Structure prediction request, 62 residues.
Amino acid sequence: MMDQIIFSKCSAAMNADYQKAGKTPPDGMVQKTCNCVVTTMDQTHNIDLAKQTCTKQAMQGS
Prediction:
């Protein structure tokens, strides 16, 4: 249940950021990045670390 909430908040925030920038996220980027956030949160319980880790990972993948 908590994972679903984290994923939902993450995807909403990412989509809002892309919309604000007038861009469309690459296919699969939101899914992949938010899955990373959920996994990292499960392991570390640290939202700042999850954001930092997964943002870096997403930037390397694009």
The chain has one domain: 1-9+28-62.
